[in-house]
């Protein structure tokens, strides 16, 4: 039974489109708008003031509200199914969609909820302060636990992929990540791999397949080494150690320099894996330098 209208906190057990719960579920603005669209039309349909929506109507809504519609727009409507039951049926040449309710397993699926134990582990291991600005409850700042890589991009609800952020930086990160949604499919492919070299390499391959260059800001995202690694060095390893041909482009935009990378040729991964190949290269380089120093001393 409904306990509120579409602008209230609950409608047929469904969360409000502007709630923190929906923001936690969908970091992607298009996906949130897709949920809002289904949510509002469910309410109107129940009150017999509008029919159930079609895919064509969603595309028109996306163009009007978001100012664009692209190859991912149809997928965003289907992304709602990660946490909610959405039924469809064919009507003429189009599909009709109905938001039925929550998925029975949504609370436990793909990190829709972060358990109290995992929250405690995150705060214990990573501190009770924002990973971006360092502020915390002592300064009157409210913290939220955030997925470093969003679930929609393949990120998991694990200690390694969670960190505390203040509300301001969490919302700022969401806005920044939304600007990267055109690369979502490539990022999703890359983050599943084991090592940063493989993840960055897969990103280069995926972007080449769609005819796009890799913006430099994507490297730390797929490298997953924000606190301990250097994604630019991993890219250098691909070029120098593993002999990948990657072209670098730089251009000025206002006061900023935009850097992009284009994969020209990828090489097979070494049998021992990229990590061991890079480590071997570094060991040999250090031995050569030590030998050169000994020669200079003599």
Automatic annotation (TrEMBL):
Q: Where is this region: Disordered?
A: 268-298
This chain belongs to which protein, by name?
HNH endonuclease
Supply the alphabetized keyword list: Endonuclease, Hydrolase, Nuclease
Q: Which residues cross the membrane?
A: none
Occurrences of domain HNH nuclease (ranges)? 117-171
- According to the UniProt entry, which residue ranges have a biased composition of type Basic and acidic residues? 273-284
What Gene3D superfamilies would the database entry show?
1.10.30.50
Keyword Ion transport included in the entry's annotation: no
Output the superkingdom of the source species: Bacteria
- Provide a Gene Ontology MF annotation, just one: nucleic acid binding
- InterPro entries from the UniProt entry: HNH, HNH_nuc
Is Nuclease found in the keyword set?
Answer: yes
Q: Which organism is it from?
A: Geodermatophilus saharensis
């Amino acid at each position: 039974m409904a306990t509120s209208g579409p602008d209230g906190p609950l409608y047929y057990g469904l969360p409000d489109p502007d709630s923190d719960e929906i923001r936690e579920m969908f970091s992607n603005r298009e996906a949130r708008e897709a949920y809002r669209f289904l949510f509002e039309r469910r309410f109107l349909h129940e009150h017999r003031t509008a029919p159930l929506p079609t895919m064509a109507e969603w595309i028109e809504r996306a163009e009007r509200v978001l100012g664009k519609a692209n190859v991912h727009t149809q997928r965003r409507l289907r992304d709602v199914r990660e946490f909610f039951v959405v039924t469809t049926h064919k009507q003429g040449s189009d599909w009709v969609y109905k938001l039925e309710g929550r998925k029975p397993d949504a609370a436990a699926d793909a990190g829709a909820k972060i358990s109290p134990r995992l929250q405690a582990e995150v705060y214990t291991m990573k501190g009770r302060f924002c990973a971006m600005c360092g502020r915390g409850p002592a300064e009157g700042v409210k913290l939220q636990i955030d997925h470093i890589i969003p679930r929609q991009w393949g990120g998991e609800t694990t200690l390694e992929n969670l960190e505390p952020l203040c509300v301001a930086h969490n919302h700022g990160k969401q806005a920044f990540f939304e600007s990267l949604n055109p690369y979502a499919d490539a990022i999703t492919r890359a983050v599943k791999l084991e090592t940063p070299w493989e993840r960055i390499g897969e990103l280069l391959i995926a972007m080449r397949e769609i005819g796009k260059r890799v913006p430099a800001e994507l490297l730390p995202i797929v490298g997953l080494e924000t606190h301990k690694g250097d994604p630019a060095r991993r890219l250098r390893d691909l070029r120098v150690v593993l002999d990948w041909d990657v072209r670098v482009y730089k251009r000025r935009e206002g006061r900023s320099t935009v850097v992009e990378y284009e994969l020209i040729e990828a090489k097979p991964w070494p049998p021992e894996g990229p990590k061991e190949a890079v480590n071997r290269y570094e060991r040999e380089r250090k031995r050569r330098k030590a030998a050169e120093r000994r020669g200079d001393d003599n």
